[in-house]
Hints:
Number of strands: 7
Shape: globular
Bound molecules: fe (ii) ion
Strand order of the largest sheet: 6-5-7
Radius of gyration: 18 Å
Strand content: 15-25%
Number of helices: 6
Structural class: alpha+beta
Amino acid sequence: xxxxxxxxxxxxxxxxxxxxxxxxxxxxxxxxxxxxxxxxxxxxxxxxxxxxxxxxxxxxxxxxxxxxxxxxxxxxxxxxxxxxxxxxxxxxxxxxxxxxxxxxxxxxxxxxxxxxxxxxxxxxxxxxxxxxxxxxxxxxxxxxxxxxxxxxxxxxxxxxxxxxxxxxxxxxxxxxxxxxxxxxxxxxxxxxxxxxxxxxxxxxxxxxxxxxxxxxxxxxxxxxxxxxxxxxxxxxx
Length: 237
Ligand SMILES: [Fe+2]
C-alpha cells in the first residue's frame, strides 16, 4: 500500500503554516477546516443540527489508476470513509461536540491519549480526507520553493526525506499513518503527551501514528500522509 501510493503522493507546493493554530492553509486549495458542515433545520422546529458531510476526493475515482484502482477508491472512500463520517454524526448528535469543528472534536476527544468514543471516527474522517488531498493524478516528485528549502534543511535532501517517509510507513506496525508534518512548539499543549518537548521543535519531521491517531493532537501541522493498513485495502490481487 505505502509503496504504490508513494508514486502519486503530492507534497504541498505552497507555503508552510505561518501562525499558530489549526486553521491554516497548507497547500493551495486545501484548508484544514474544510470539512463541510451542513445546517439542517427541521420543519416546524427551531432546532438546528450540524452535520459533517463526506467530501469526495478531488478527482475521479479511477484517476489514480494504475496505482490505486477505482474499486479501491469505491471501497476505501465510498464505504470506509463514509462509515467514519456517518458513525461520527450519530455519536455527536445532540452533544456538545455537535457544535465543534472536526478538528476541535479530535482535540477534545483525544483526552491525553485516553480516547473518548468519538475520537476514532473523528480522526479517521479527517485523516482520510487529508489522504485523498495528499494525492493527485500524475502527482509525486520533488516540490519547489520554501518547502523544498525546508526539506533540504531538515532532512539533508529530498531523496533522504523520501527514504525516511517510506521507512516510516513500512515500519508502522499494524494499522496507522505515516506523515510529513511541521513540528510546532509542543511545550505547552495539553494533549502533547507524546512526543516529549524537544529542542528540535519547529522543523519538518516524519512521524508515524498508530490506528486513527492524528498528529494534530501533538500540535504538529500535517503536510502529507499515507494510510498504512496491515491488510491491504486494494481489492485487486
Ligand atoms: Fe483507510
